[in-house]
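Review form for a predicted model. The reviewer records the input and the model, then writes brief findings.
Reviewer: anonymous (R2)
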Amino acid sequence: MQCKESHSKLSAFADGELDAPAAAQLTQHLAQCPDCARACAQMLALRAAVRTQGTRHAAPAALHQRLRAALQEEAGASKAARRARRGRQWGRLPWAWINFGVASASTAALAVTLLLYLSQPSATERLDQEIVASHFRSLMPNHLADVASSDQHTVKPWFNGKLDFSPPVVDLAQEGYPLVGGRLDYISQRPVAALAYRRHQHVLNLYVWPGSAASDAPPRLSTRQGFHLIRWRRAGMDYQLISDLNAAELLDFERRLAAQIDKDAMP
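Model under review:
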């Protein structure tokens, strides 16, 4: 894929509109082209910022009342139009068509309002978009780690004083997932710990921050822009994992990580 073709597909890629083969082809190009990867990361970061920081306004109660009244008027207008057609009364026919036009316009307004409401991304979708944008930024040269080390006893203390929590840091090199390092990131309007791992030529980014709910949540797998994402909650922490690694190996990483964290927590 050439850069010109890549740029023409970035917008569709950011919107999740590319099919799987096209998304995989573009992802491969982005991994090899820093300029295109930078452009994609900037686009995703902008979209994430707009969605998370942009001001949204709920429809006022008066609008709901007008829409309800318009629907009732539409029902009445339809009856009036039928009477006008049956009676062939010239004087009443234009008004029936005017009422029908008003009702049609009201129906269109209702459809537009519902479309705008339904098109708003959910909190989970907005979080996934932020994770994808952060993952892309990390793939740029010198962006993967603020502290580059495979030693968990070097990476974990580095976060001290930089976060208001202590993230669990483990090295899974013996299981085939060596720790690359850690960095600070900003996700869901708060600073988080980002831990980078590798599996062969694939980069895995693990994001950790204190959970908003007390109960644990099992791993849930999703796909966005050609990447696999796994989210789960355990022992008061929220975890988000992302990579272009296949889903089976990514789930294997999650299981090994959870087992090691539990082992380290034992007295």
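Findings: The beta strands are 147-148, 179-187, 190-199, 202-210, 217-224, 227-234, 237-243.
Further findings: The CA atoms of residues 105 and 119 lie 21 Å apart.
Recommendation: see findings above.
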